[in-house]
Amino acid sequence: MTSAAPAGLRVRHVRALAGRHHVAWWFVGPALLVIAVFFVLPVVAALAMSLTDFDIYALADLSNLRIVGLRNYVELLQRPLFWKALGNTLYFVGAGVPLSLGASLGAALLLNSRLARFQPFFRTALFAPVVTTVVAVAVIWRYLLGTRYGVVNYALGAIGVPAVDWLGDPRFAMPAIILFAVWKNFGYNMIILLAGLQNIPNELYEAARIDGASAFARFRFVTLPMLAPILTIVAILTVAGYFQLFAEPYVMTQGGPLQSTVSVLYFMYEEGFKWWNLGNASAVAFLLFLLIFAVTLLQTRQLRRGGFAR
Amino acid sequence: MSAAEPPQSANSAPSGGSEAAKPRARGDHTSTPLPAQRGAAHRRWAWHVIPRPAAIAVNGLLGAAAAIALFPLLWMLAVSFMSPGEASAYPPPLVPAHPTFANYRELFAHAGIGRYLANSVLLAVAATALSLVFNVMAGYAFAKLDFRGRERLFKLMLGALVIPGQVAMVPLFLLLKQLGLVNTYGGVIVPALASIFGIFLVRQYALSIPDDLLEAARIDGASEWRIFGAIVVPLLSPIIVTLAVFTLLGTWNDFMWPLIVLSDQHLYTLPVALASLSREHVQDNELMMAGSVLTTLPVLVVFLVLQRYYIQGLMMGGVKG
Amino acid sequence: MTRIARWYRIAVFMLAGASLAISGCSEHASDVTVVRFWAMGREGEVVTALLPEFERTHPGIRVAVQQLPWTAAHEKLLTSFAGDATPDIAQLGNTWIAEFVALGALQPLDASIGASSVDPHDFFAGIWDTNVVATHTYGVPWYVDTRLLFYRRDVLEAAGIGSVPGSWSEWTRTLAAVKAHAEPGRYAILLPMNEVEPLLALALQQHDPLLRDGGRYGNFESAGFRRALDFYVDMFRRGYAPPVTAAQLSNVWNEFGRGTFAFYISGPWNIGEFERRLPPAAQSAWATAPLPGPDGPGASIAGGSSLVVFRASKAKDAAWQLVEYLARPDVELRFRELTGDLPPRRSAWSDPGLAADVHARAFRDQLERVKPAPKVPEWERIADEMRLVAERAARGEWTVDEAVRELDARADRILEKRRWLLARGARD
Question: What angle do CA A187, A189, A191 make, to 5 degrees?
Answer without folding.
Answer: 70
